[in-house]
Amino acid sequence: MRSDTRLSRMLHVLIHMQHHEGTATSDAIAMMLGTNPVVVRRTMAGLRDQGYVRSEKGHGGGWLLARSLEEITLLDIHKALGTPQLFAIGLAGDNPSCTIEQAVNTSLAEAMDAAEAILLAKFGKVTLAELAEGAAKVANGRLTMEHL
């Protein structure tokens, strides 16, 4: 099963946008992510609908942050992306009348629900500004915008 990397990729893009002067075009973002500009526009439109970015049309147009990184959490972006599934583990459904399968599924579902609640609570406490600070430390204070 292929991993859903949209959350990680959009966090990456939004933090770069904070350090970028002017707009970031869908083409530039797509080049940075190695994807198609249509995919970028579709994904960014979801973020725009939730008020995290805005778009400018015409010459020199592109995407801009609509809020500061201090106001945006990982949970905000996760929700704006449609709350993608957090775990790849699934429950069996081959023999729903089997009491062993039922017990296994109940136990796994309870554990995954508890883990998901913890993870989402953590997402709600981490701002994009904190991620950017961590990136700046790793880069010794030199965040560059060579990709955008």
TrEMBL record:
This is DNA-binding IscR family transcriptional regulator. One of its GO terms (molecular function) is DNA-binding transcription factor activity. It holds the Pfam family Rrf2. Coiled coil: none annotated. InterPro entries: Tscrpt_reg_Rrf2, WH-like_DNA-bd_sf, WH_DNA-bd_sf. Keywords: DNA-binding. GO terms for cellular component: cytosol. PANTHER family: HTH-TYPE TRANSCRIPTIONAL REGULATOR YWGB-RELATED, WINGED HELIX-TURN-HELIX TRANSCRIPTIONAL REGULATOR, RRF2 FAMILY.
